[in-house]
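Sharing a chain and its predicted structure for anyone who wants a worked example. Both blocks are below, sequence first, tokens second.
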Amino acid sequence: MKPIHDRMPVILKPEDENSYLSLHSDIQKVQLLLKPTDQKLEMT
């Protein structure tokens, strides 16, 4: 990703999107969402 930008993208489950984006979410709960995906990723 570094040639494109200096930030790593986040892949979330649809049900976690609101928690991740909310300014009122508990930071510890949000950090639990930041984990490697178990799905195979494909760049197209």
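Comments welcome. The longest helix spans residues 27-33.
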